[in-house]
């Protein structure tokens, strides 16, 4: 059984690899790595490839991309990765990210990897002390050709080189196959030159589909580099029955193709999911080495706590994925005159985050996250070019499981939304904020009310109300103006309920829900929204959809008397109140 390089936490110091003269792969050959022989690697690689083929057939997907990366997977999980199979939450482990990370836009994995590397560098700067390297790990990112064709990926790569993130390694599977057809873009023809010019260490492996030893040497060279490392692994689509021109990624193989591949690998085509004991023996020491590595890091952390107790308490708090209490102190205090507001930066609004919908939806099961999503711009910002702002995109977010979609109406409710996000340890929070400065309601709004999902925003002046109006997010200004029209023009008394989050409201007691909505015979409840009418039938008798929603390029006389649209809404509500009175 081969002893791996991961047996000791301080292996990099005890067995410092010394570069030899570069070989024909342009990789510094590392010493003292304890690698298995080439013939042993070939046997394990062929068996793993055969297993991948069977797995692809079981899942009805094409396994060719996974087969090309089989050698890389063995090099990573057998030799290079620092991790503990017994504990996936081991904090000082290496992180590995695939190209799409969460079925989002192509190439976002590079951005995530750079962000993780920055976060780890920040933690190391905060908590590492002389003699105590409690944060010391790598971030690995595996990408393909399409990922490097994205402009946002190249921007992230430039940032990593500028900040010298030597704890980051991008492994590029160069196969010249994008999502469809053959990749021949200028952006990836000279990618090595681009990486060197942006401050990266570049390593190239011509036979990356099979040379586990060369890949392992490159990975350890990345771990000891003083710059971020870019490893270009050349792989070919021509393997067995695979052809480079075949662009079908999501189609399973035919039975004859499976037989052809297994025969070319020297395997029995009739054996399904064949995994002999020699494969288990090859990886047997990974579990024990990972556990030993974790135990030694924990012992080092205990020693660190004796010398730096305050920092150790903070670090353990972060390792436990808990929120520091002092974050709540960063929120501005409530002010009778309202919190000073600033506009969001000029951007494409929700149009620019529409492609992130899968990324937002899938990680909701992963726990504590927060997203800021701008709402529509009702009118052009002063001095800015008018543009159309679509508003349909956030509609699905309230229906995503384990997700809190909060629409605050002003700065005070925004503070409450951030309070919810900070305290939600097991849920994703999406906060929709207006891009322009919203109207402020310091005498009505409440951050504590946001925590409850909905609350009574305004009561009528004396007497009972004729109608209950529900306002949501930045549409609250329309709701309050409608309330004023109902009172001044039609003499109707109305109470207003602010409803920033349906899911939070559903978690409250029936008594609280009753006290907020106060459903009464002959007195209607009307919700006024500009988007997302689904779900409001549980709380309101009528939903009024603001007709001019999304037409941000058309200025409206919001500051010149009553808005004609609000006059029309108020007129319809008056007719509704009259029709309900007959049932009192």
TrEMBL record:
InterPro entries found in the cross-reference section: THDP-binding, Transketo_C/PFOR_II, Transketolase-like_C_2, Transketolase_fam, Transketolase_N
GO cellular component assignments: cytosol; nucleus
Annotated GO MF terms: metal ion binding; transketolase activity
Lineage top rank: taxon: Eukaryota
UniProt feature, compositional bias: Basic residues: 379-388
Signal peptide, first to last residue: none
Cofactor(s) the protein needs: thiamine diphosphate
Keywords, ordered alphabetically: Magnesium, Metal-binding, Thiamine pyrophosphate, Transferase
SUPFAM superfamilies, per database record: Thiamin diphosphate-binding fold (THDP-binding), TK C-terminal domain-like
Domain Transketolase-like C-terminal: 453-550
Domain Transketolase N-terminal: 100-319
Region (Disordered), start-end ranges: 366-397
Example GO biological process: pentose-phosphate shunt
Name of the protein: Transketolase
Organism the protein comes from: Cylindrodendrum hubeiense
């Amino acid at each position: 059984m081969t002893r791996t390089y991961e047996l000791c936490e301080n292996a990099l110091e005890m067995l410092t690899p010394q570069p030899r003269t570069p070989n024909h792969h342009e990789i510094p050959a590392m010493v003292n790595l304890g690698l298995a022989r080439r013939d042993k690697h070939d046997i394990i690689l062929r068996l793993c490839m055969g297993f991948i083929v069977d797995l692809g057939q079981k899942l009805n997907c094409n396994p060719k991309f996974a087969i090309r990366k089989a050698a890389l997977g063995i090099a990573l999980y057998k030799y290079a990765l620092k991790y503990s199979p017994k504990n996936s939450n081991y904090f000082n482990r290496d992180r590995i990210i695939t190209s799409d990370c969460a079925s989002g836009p192509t190439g976002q994995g590079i951005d995530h990897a750079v962000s993780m590397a920055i976060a780890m560098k920040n933690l190391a700067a905060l908590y590492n002390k002389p003699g105590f390297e409690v944060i010391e790990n790598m971030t690995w990112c595996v990408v393909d050709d399409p990922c490097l064709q994205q402009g946002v990926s190249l921007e992230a790569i430039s940032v990593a080189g500028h900040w010298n993130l030597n704890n980051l390694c991008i492994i590029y599977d160069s196969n010249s196959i994008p999502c469809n057809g053959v990749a021949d873009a200028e952006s990836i023809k000279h990618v090595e030159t681009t990486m060197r010019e942006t401050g990266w260490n570049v390593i190239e492996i011509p036979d990356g589909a099979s040379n586990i030893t060369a890949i392992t040497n490159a990975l350890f060279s990345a771990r000891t580099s003083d710059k971020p490392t870019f490893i270009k692994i050349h792989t070919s689509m021509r393997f067995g029955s695979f052809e480079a021109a075949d662009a079908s990624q999501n189609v399973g193989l035919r039975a004859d193709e499976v037989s052809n591949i297994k025969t070319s690998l020297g395997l029995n085509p009739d054996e399904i999911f064949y995994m002999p004991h020699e494969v288990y023996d090859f990886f047997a020491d990974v579990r024990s080495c990972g556990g030993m590595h974790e135990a030694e890091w924990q012992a080092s952390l205990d020693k660190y706590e004796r010398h730096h107790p305050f920092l150790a308490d903070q670090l353990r708090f972060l390792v436990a994925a808990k929120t520091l209490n002092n974050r709540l102190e960063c929120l501005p205090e409530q002010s009778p005159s309202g919190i000073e507001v600033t506009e969001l930066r000029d951007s494409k609004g929700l149009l620019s985050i529409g492609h992130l919908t899968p990324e937002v939806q899938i990680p909701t099961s992963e726990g504590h996250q927060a997203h800021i999503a701008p709402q529509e711009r009702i009118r052009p910002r002063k001095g800015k070019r008018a543009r159309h702002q679509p508003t349909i995109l956030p509609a699905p977010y309230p229906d995503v499981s384990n997700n809190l979609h909060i629409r605050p109406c002003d700065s005070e409710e925004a503070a409450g939304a951030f309070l919810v996000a900070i305290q939600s340890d097991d849920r994703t929070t999406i906060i929709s904020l207006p891009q322009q400065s919203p109207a402020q309601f310091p005498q009505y709004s409440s951050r504590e009310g946001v925590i409850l999902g909905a609350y009574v925003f305004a009561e009528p002046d004396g007497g009972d109300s004729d109608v209950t109006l529900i306002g949501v997010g930045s549409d609250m200004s329309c709701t309050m103006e409608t309330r004023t029209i109902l009172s001044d023009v039609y003499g109707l008394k109305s109470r207003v309920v602010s409803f920033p989050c349906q899911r939070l409201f559903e978690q409250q007691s029936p008594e609280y829900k009753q006290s907020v909505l106060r459903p009464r015979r002959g007195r209607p409840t009307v919700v006024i929204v500009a988007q997302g009418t689904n779900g409001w039938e549980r709380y309101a008798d009528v939903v009024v959809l603001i007709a001019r929603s999304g037409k941000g390029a058309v200025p409206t006389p919001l500051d010149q008397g009553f808005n004609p649209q609000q006059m029309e809404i108020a007129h319809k509500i008056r007719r509704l109140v009259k029709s309900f009175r007959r049932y009192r």
